Hints:
This protein is mainly alpha-helical. The protein has one domain (30-298). The protein contains 13 helices and no strands. The protein has helices spanning 30-50, 57-75, 77-83, 89-113, 118-125, 127-135, 142-157, 164-190, 195-216, 223-248, 253-260, 263-275, 281-298. The longest helix is centred in the middle third of the chain and has 27 residues, at 164-190. It is globular and about 50 Å long. Keywords: Membrane, Transmembrane, Transmembrane helix. Pfam families: EamA. Belongs to the EamA transporter family.
Amino acid sequence: MALAEAPGSYERPGGFAGRARPLSLGTVPPPALILLGILSVQVGAGLAKHMFDRLPPDAVVSLRLLTSAVVLAFVTRGALRVTLRGRSRRDWAVVAGFGLTLALMNFSIYQAFSRIPLGVAVTIEFLGPLAVAIMGSRRARDAVWAVLAFTGVLMLARGGEMDPVGIAYALLAGVCWAAYILLTAATGQRFPGSTGLAVASIVGTVAIMPVGIAAGGEAMLDPELLLFGLGVGLLSSVIPYSLEMEALRRMPARVFGILMSLEPAVAALIGVALLGEVLSGRQWAAIGCVIVACVGATRGREEPSA
């Protein structure tokens, strides 16, 4: 699957690349698995934002990254010992850049969550994979989808009720997501399976932990908050990745991309249900513009050859 091929053809930020062991989910239709994965990610985001009253965003994102890094390092522990030997400086530079991008992406979107509604932040961030898909396209009509997505973001940004700093953080998260997609490909060419992402996750965690500890202080040692942080990490990374990998075994990447385009709408609904973030009609229309642009950019693409 080409990573830049469609808005849905990407690795989940903070997720796990490479092969995973099949889950006992063969009787569940693939579209249901994708929707469950989207729901898991956004519920995790909602719980993370709910924690901001007791723990700063910097500390929450540190706990999320730490959870992902620990799980991934455990899963790949055998392969890591073999893979990391004899690596070139270029290999280390790529995987380190990947890890720092991962940390900045998660840091930025959590900062956005703390300032603007969940659905708005995710919609703006989604421009990252959409931009990669459109820039990698040779179809003239994809310019229409780019204009539509840009229009949607302008609609979200207009009005004094939206924090411009939050919008800026969401845009930065989108830029990092685009870079994440490209660095996933570069890392995958240099490191087998999930080992590259395991190293990158460790790098990102090491980079962000001092910031999280400084912001969270002793509160990060609260067992209840640690448990919530673990839950956020599982809901935002481990569970959706497993569901998506199972679905991708039984459905075309193009259909996967179309279904993933629903993520901004699901984020907005989770924001309403868990956080009471009621959006205006204009904001819902703007989210709709981005979703239509994502679906339009995904439809009609040829499946990559095996």
